[in-house]
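In the previous chapter we treated chains in isolation. Here, by contrast, the input contains two separate entities that must be folded as one system, with a combined length of 430 residues.
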Amino acid sequence: MKVLIILGGKMPDDFLKKMYENYKADYVIVADGALAAMDRTGLIFHSLVGDFDTIAPEILEKYEHRSNIYVERHIPEKNQTDSELAVWIAMKKQPKEIAILGATGGRMDHTIGNIHLLYQCMKKNIPCVIYDEWNRITLIQKEAIFQKKTSYGTYISFLPFQEYAEHVTLEGFRYPLSDALLEKGTTLAISNEIEADIAKVTVEKGILICVESRD
Amino acid sequence: MKVLIILGGKMPDDFLKKMYENYKADYVIVADGALAAMDRTGLIFHSLVGDFDTIAPEILEKYEHRSNIYVERHIPEKNQTDSELAVWIAMKKQPKEIAILGATGGRMDHTIGNIHLLYQCMKKNIPCVIYDEWNRITLIQKEAIFQKKTSYGTYISFLPFQEYAEHVTLEGFRYPLSDALLEKGTTLAISNEIEADIAKVTVEKGILICVESRD
């Protein structure tokens, strides 16, 4: 099962529609303010979650009591963001993978919090990817393979998610690395490019934030 | 001495001008692509750094050889982003504080890398703040005080910069916390608000990312 989560970050409707169609999710979860975009685009979804403080009541009314939509309404004083609650619903489905849209832009607390949520999925061994117009963001443990032809943009960057990412090796990239230490606060592996048809990153200890980006 | 760093992230000219005028920096450092905005606005700066791969040659020519601008030109194959090189120049000035503009938006590798740069400043005991139109971002060690009247927006959020932030106490906030554990990957302290005139956060172990934001 593939789950798609749609959050309320900044995102043009045409990007949402294109990603929705390409991803072909089996289950779609919408968090709070993102309902406005779903209402505008008419895209089908299966679950709606949040405290509903950022959605117009007249839009909420249209979807809140539909029998084919699972609605989870929370109090505003909850201990999780709407994004985290959406990820919890996704993880309960025990999916093969999760994709998140609307995770970035505007409020940086939400953006950073959403990137941190990838870690919650990683701990449960569920691959999870954040997509926006310019970036594809994942966390990498141990190793990952990239194909040049399916890359998201010109640039690919690796940053340490924790204090250090140790023994990092990059093969098939424009700027290769061999057994390097990535230290949080430094920018050694930002703005690399995939050069070979297949490129490989390995990290022996620690976790990498991987950002593929378009300028 | 107060140092202002201007990076090439997304930023409207009027925000740049307002922040530049309000901050009253003693020394202004411009990184690469940000030169275009400085050229448009006519704001004075003292240092220009980067590999100059994202600036039009005709704009670069106007500033590259001025005797009153310290220019540091690097090869594109360098091991640091232009942002990190700008922070290095700033730190050499042994400033009382550093503010960074143009650090966010668009490419998330640069955005995350720039937030991580705050850590490099923290290690040298130099307070450093990222400002964009919607957010003020800092790192907090031990404790910090916030005045309601000087807050940057409605919301204030705290996220763990490392695996854990331990024994976190929030006083004077809408949602107080007492001796709480913030675990990376969870979103407990996102979307709080300053309630008292003076609010205080303490963290006994670990570092907090603090984001004050406007919606």
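Helices of chain B lie at 13-23, 35-41, 57-64, 82-92, 108-123. Chain B has a mean pLDDT of 97. Compare these points with the single-chain example from earlier in the chapter.
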